[in-house]
Amino acid sequence: MKLRFSAQDEQFRAEVATWLEQNLGGEFEEIRGRGGPGDEHMLVEERKAWERKLHQGGWTCIGWPAEYGGRNATIEQQVIFNEEYARARGPGRMGHIGETLLGPTLIAFGSEGQKQRFLPPILRGEELWCQGYSEPSAGSDLANVKTRARFDEEAGRWLITGQKVWTSLAHESHYCFVIARVDPQSVGHRGLGFFLIAMNQPGVTVRPIEQLTGTCEFNEVFFDDAVCGPDDIVGAPGDGWKVAMGLLGFERGVSTLGQQMLFNNELDEIIRIARSNGAARDPVIRQRIADAHVGLRIMRFNSMRMLSGGTSDGSLQKEAMIYKLYWSTWHRNLGKLAMDVLGPESEILDSGPYGLSRMQSMYLFTRSDTIYGGTNQIQRNIIAERALGMPREPRG
Amino acid sequence: MKLRFSAQDEQFRAEVATWLEQNLGGEFEEIRGRGGPGDEHMLVEERKAWERKLHQGGWTCIGWPAEYGGRNATIEQQVIFNEEYARARGPGRMGHIGETLLGPTLIAFGSEGQKQRFLPPILRGEELWCQGYSEPSAGSDLANVKTRARFDEEAGRWLITGQKVWTSLAHESHYCFVIARVDPQSVGHRGLGFFLIAMNQPGVTVRPIEQLTGTCEFNEVFFDDAVCGPDDIVGAPGDGWKVAMGLLGFERGVSTLGQQMLFNNELDEIIRIARSNGAARDPVIRQRIADAHVGLRIMRFNSMRMLSGGTSDGSLQKEAMIYKLYWSTWHRNLGKLAMDVLGPESEILDSGPYGLSRMQSMYLFTRSDTIYGGTNQIQRNIIAERALGMPREPRG
Amino acid sequence: MEFKFSEEQLMIRDTADAFLAEVSTSAAVREAMATELGYDPMLWQRMCEEMFWPAIHIPEQFGGMGLGYVELVAMQEQMGRYLLCAPFYATVCLATNALLVAASEQQKARYLPAIVSGTTATLAYTGSNGQWDADAVEAICTREGENYVISGNYRFVPDGHSAQLLVVAAREPGTRGEEGISLFVLPADCPGISRHWLPTMDQTRKQARLDFDKVTLDASALMGEVGQAWPQLAQIIDLATIAIAGDQVGGAQQSLDSTVAYLKERVQFGRKIASYQAVKHKAADMMLKVEAARSAIYYAACIADEFFQGGELSVELPEAASIAKAYCSDAYFHNAGTGIQLHGGVGFTAEYDIQLYFKRAKSTETFLGNASYHRERLARTLLDGSDLL
Amino acid sequence: MEFKFSEEQLMIRDTADAFLAEVSTSAAVREAMATELGYDPMLWQRMCEEMFWPAIHIPEQFGGMGLGYVELVAMQEQMGRYLLCAPFYATVCLATNALLVAASEQQKARYLPAIVSGTTATLAYTGSNGQWDADAVEAICTREGENYVISGNYRFVPDGHSAQLLVVAAREPGTRGEEGISLFVLPADCPGISRHWLPTMDQTRKQARLDFDKVTLDASALMGEVGQAWPQLAQIIDLATIAIAGDQVGGAQQSLDSTVAYLKERVQFGRKIASYQAVKHKAADMMLKVEAARSAIYYAACIADEFFQGGELSVELPEAASIAKAYCSDAYFHNAGTGIQLHGGVGFTAEYDIQLYFKRAKSTETFLGNASYHRERLARTLLDGSDLL
Hints:
Strand content of chain C: 5-15%
Shape of chain A: globular
Radius of gyration of chain A: 22 Å
CATH superfamily of the largest domain in chain C: Butyryl-CoA Dehydrogenase, subunit A, domain 3
Number of strands of chain C: 10
Strand content of chain A: 5-15%
Shape of chain C: globular
CATH architecture of the largest domain in chain C: Up-down Bundle
Radius of gyration of chain C: 21 Å
Strand order of the largest sheet of chain A: 1-4-5-8
Helix content of chain C: 40-55%
CATH class of the largest domain in chain C: Mainly Alpha
Structural class of chain A: alpha+beta
Oligomer: heterotetramer
CATH superfamily of the largest domain in chain A: Butyryl-CoA Dehydrogenase, subunit A, domain 3
Largest sheet of chain A: 4 strands, mixed
CATH topology of the largest domain in chain A: Butyryl-CoA Dehydrogenase, subunit A, domain 3
CATH class of the largest domain in chain A: Mainly Alpha
Number of domains of chain A: 3
Number of helices of chain A: 12
């Protein structure tokens, strides 16, 4: 076991840090630390400009192969980039869905034409993407897709009709990738297609969903005979589930250490408050802060195992299977801890009518951490069934 | 709402207390506080004598109708008797299964002959009973009875074959009531019979089950063509489930306040230890002791609701449905608290090779509280299904 | 022993239930909570004139209904269940209790009938240090001739920006803890008082800051003996604590009920979510908590009745209050939080009500001390003493 | 970064696994634990002579294998998994660490090869006050000419009644806390030492009381500077803490594995119990805890390696030890306790092994401080400082 990055990796780290230090200032000073969870819809134009700046420095899509403009960065380098980006308080990435989800999907499953059409603008930070998976009746049951795609033989194009939900940044995105049912007789994960749909067309309507914070980070997206070109389906009609699941596999945890740095900032802030308002002398609060620290450190150790590719004997990476359940539960507890450290002041807003402080916003948003991207219940099903070999839940 | 017992009830309380004070001494001094959970197999002869003493005072079977030798005691009076009995540290009742389970069952479902044969010796503390419900494959699934009863037409008697488990005091009991399958083709709760079987016969073998404490409070009971007279079946063949479930309904919570007094003694002892070894200054321990106190007080309030018969509008007594889950979980936590208050000393036994202290024994036994009499999982199923109307668990 | 509602108490509860189902709908709550005032004055008027709610436990000699604390807690439970936005808690459970416990007969005769008629009121005793016990009192009261002059700030005052009548605590200079505390009753528009709404995360319960700048009161404002009011204030706080725990039980119940209703509707993987065992068990745990919490508040309410009647169980008031608040705070937070989780995606949208309960769970948890505070308060009684080694 | 086992480490782990599966069966454990000695001397001999286990992290110059702490912790994990009854932990994780950290070269040369050859040893530093930090040291050491005289009692000493070699801590009269502590190494049969087995709830890990009555040692027994040994003792305790956390992870893993195996066999209501969702979710939570615990011990083991190599991450030793012990203690207790619950009725019979894990979970939780102790230790670093308001 080796805890440290190689000298070469550390050199790469210095390069990233230097570039960020030199470029994440001036006009970009105001977006430092912004656009994260619960703040994703803020300072959009500035953050779009930042995407282009990143591209100029060669820092978009670093994990992509060089032939598509990437750096062929290793897992370690991607981890390092994410860590340094978080350390520098880089803003929430507008382009992350294109870069980390769609790009690798096209590289794996896309046609040459799709790669040439869609990858360069992602690389340049010019075209932003959003994700059209969930539907009102397809939440945990992701395969229960009702959105239909039918091929209009006459016009030679696909027409998409249906409703997607929980779509981040739908307003700001140029394209949405959508799973839709191509075979109206099919059910479940069969008979689906994976479509690339332009958002700026009459058949697409975006409606924001207000959250418990009073802000609107997510949207409903309505497709009403939305048009999709004949070449803008990835894989064959019917391959949609395979492509969609492949896409989910491309998130290999490279952002986890960066995410943990944000968590660490939150914990540091809680410690600062506790020391200044006397809560640090409350023995129960002391236990809980220490417990949060223990949990966060172990989260890091667990990520290090995950990123190291598990045991050399090729057995199941159980430490990766627990990760979502672990961090979401930890973070939810952190939210409650923040409020309890603040005491009665936790109720008082920064400003009326509903101007939440950073800690309050974090607290309320953590309630969604254990829900989106697979609820804790679904995570436990998966762990029990795949890692422990317990019988699957029957469908109704 | 009235918190207090009536003047009449308080007079009854004084009567009970006086009698116990005058009689639970001398030769019976040594059995004070003995024979409770985890200690049920101790000082058996002395406790049998105590049963007869109780009868002399008219304190057995007080809830039974006067015609069967009882006192027709009200729920309140039964509660008071149990409280005072616990307060006086009366020993674990050898006769409680006959008194509280079989007796009421015979009174409700038994023939006149059964009543005349079996009730008087129970009343006099002379014949002890044990319970034959659970089987190795019928734990939570109580209806999955494999024990068979066949009627030997020639000899005119029932022959019982099978295995029962978790039978307390089987060695000391004169009789066992057993549910057994009379219709070999039947499954589940159909086709069962409720039998009254003498333990002292060649067809009955008792084997103690050693617990994690090293002691043997429970037994396996093997029936190998055990003989049961033709009149010793309660109800008709096939009525066994109805009789068995009726029996479970006779426990109306009159012993809960007495049980809580024992819990209170345990908590007092924990507080005494904490004050003497300095654990009472540990803020985390302080929180946990206070939480235990909160939990126990609420347990009492909840019992008071339960014993008052719920809301006058006749709605479901939800406070009764939570009771088992509530107390068992509370007590299990108390066991852990006791050990943590003791600190490293919690490991050290009173004597070798395995002489557990009272607190250690309590701690280990509390792990069974959440299992026997319906596991916490089964309790939660029942609450969700019966009280909240959620769908039943499907059978396989 | 009859530890259950009488027929009359059931009727009072059911009447409150029916009225609130009509007036405190989700839409009405959302409309009221978005205002700075925080409630609909017309509704408050109906609550006073049609329902006589502020009169509930005011003695009949002062125009009240003369009912008990069990009835009050039963109503609080329904108000919590319907997320009622109204100055009821501040007026009845804070100020009226304060008057009943600590006011002179003249003061009662002057102010209690006004409350019956719809005057709103509240209690201010907490400074900005975030405490809830005697240390919370920070405002200073000095004697100037026949008058008392109060200066200082109050924080976290329920409906403090809108209440018409105030009961306030202040302490003599140089005192601390339980020493030197006095209580005063005064109109909220006395010169020297400025009041500021504090916007809060839970919008259904409004809080305010009150700044007292040399507020001068004559002797008629003083409640009881000068500097000797802590025992009364402690009782007022305990009574208020029991009442807020009632609100919590109602919220915890509704968090369960609305969640179970949703679970019975929502289908995933071809099955009602309510059919999944892990979900059922979470719901069962929620019911356990709310039933135990209910047992706790009704016992505490009975003790409060004993207190008002001078019964021997009065001595249990602090313990019963802390037991109720410790348990109900955690139960409500647990149930509302689990409710969000079991709602899934819609649980954290503004559209569904469960998030409103989640926020009220937190604000009532904090108010008058969270579970940890009350457990330590109980621990002092259980564990401390001169013989502690 | 390569935070996973190397091929060699995997081999060491698998070898331990295979050996223990053969020798530390349920029957063998039950036989050994019922004795006062607590282990099978023949098995210990095999562990020393065939497997070279006591030699594992002793440098080659002293006849050891010269491996690292990761390897040691990997073996501890397997020993915990198989409930091994042996003087390995006391000898290797207590006494050998003490010698490696604090002994002179002469002392190492004298005692380490003996340990390689099978001499058993332990560390005694705790008195009867139930502490685990510097305050735990109660025995008194006085100077008499060239000699040191130790008097006092030690308690909770692993294998203290049977170990052949002792490392003990004692303090100068009148000192407290971290002051005045010295370490000594001595044969257990020195005059003035009486030793008593303390029967314990967990029978798989033996404890003893050691009474020192004017035990007189010459200067060759002193490890390091007189009265200055706390920093070394603190390191020894941290290393021992990491090793016991390894045992806990193995036990937590086996609690999960044996429970899941039982759930897949047992049928109720016509279904495998393993098919019930609430049961599955409990098992999933158990896996989460054991995997997180595993991440914690291997990080801590790497830090221990850094410590022995004098690397810059050595400074993390106390933190890594407390993180591992806090998390693993709770994880093991949770998994063993939940394991009993999911076993149902057979879970609390002597026949099934899950109760043995439950008891070992408790004894390892208490030993060297429970989670609450280690969290407060971490809190002091995180929260305290001269600028705390």
